[in-house]
Amino acid sequence: MNSKVTIFDHPLIQHKLSILRDENTGTKEFRELISEISMLMCYEATRDLPLEDVVIKTPMATMTAKKIAGRKLALVPILRAGCGMLDAMLRMVPSAKVGHIGLYRDEVTHKPVEYYNKLPGDVDERDVFVLDPMLATGGSAADAISIIKRSNPRSIRFLCIIAAPEGIEVLTKSHPDVEIYCAAKDEKLNENCYILPGLGDAGDRIYGTDVVGEVSVDKRGSTVKLRSKTK
Length: 231
Ligand SMILES: O=P(O)(O)OC[C@H]1O[C@H](OP(=O)(O)OP(=O)(O)O)[C@H](O)[C@@H]1O
Ligand SMILES: O=c1cc[nH]c(=O)[nH]1
Ligand SMILES: [Mg+2]
Prior knowledge:
Largest sheet: 8 strands, mixed
Pfam family, one: UPRTase
Catalytic activity: UMP + diphosphate = 5-phospho-alpha-D-ribose 1-diphosphate + uracil
Binding site for 5-phospho-alpha-D-ribose 1-diphosphate: 80, 105, 132-140, 201
Distance between the termini: 43 Å
Strand content: 25-35%
Low-confidence stretches: 225-231
Number of strands: 17
GO biological process, one term: uracil salvage
Radius of gyration: 19 Å
CATH architecture: 3-Layer(aba) Sandwich
Bound molecules: 1-O-pyrophosphono-5-O-phosphono-alpha-D-ribofuranose, uracil, magnesium ion
CATH topology: Rossmann fold
Shape: globular
Number of domains: 1
InterPro entries: PRTase-like (IPR029057), PRTase_dom (IPR000836), Upp_B (IPR034332), UPRT (IPR005765), UPRTase/APRTase (IPR050054)
Order of helices and strands: EHHEEEHEEEEEHEEHEEEEHEE
Mean pLDDT: 91
Structural class: alpha/beta
Helix content: 25-40%
């Protein structure tokens, strides 16, 4: 199967995304917006789940109604930023099981480094939604999906909020069977492999952690030498 990229152009998603991107949006509102956008994206990304007929009784009459047809889902956020999308998705599909994959991008090589991996035992019976707000070089998403594929899931979809063209290309080539859903396809990456115009560092903006060491990359994707103020 060839991978497909769906960009959600729903006005509510686009409106919320513009506020999310704004550098003046603080941590609390940023988290709330990530959640709201994820909920709207979940609604769109689950549009093709098959339904089955069930007979129910309302207080007025017996009727044949629709329910989702025994589909088993798993949600797998890529730590940390992917966790910002998890609660909203779980509110929409509360019966989903949850796995976690811990990856961080090395600041020099920009390659993902794995530090955690715990998936539901029955992933081979499930359709998996991988969650991460940012698809930049595509390295983290591609590695996370390779890890998940070792457990033979029924299918994998990748949900992100902003995708760079470079990341889409890498993910499409490495996993052509995986459908990609995003709210925006941005212009390009900067010299530190941050998305332009993007929104900065998603994990830092969700959790309010600006700088992790003496030399780091700030939430705008620039190399900084001193600790900077957390918003
Ligand atoms: O497509 P890539 O070039 O791999 O970049 C995208 C990754 O970078 C960010 O995570 P980060 O490494 O900053 O970890 P964090 O979520 O802990 O902040 C983001 O949440 C993705 O996982
Ligand atoms: O722009 C980017 C790229 C990688 N990770 C982020 O959080 N933002
Ligand atoms: Mg980060």
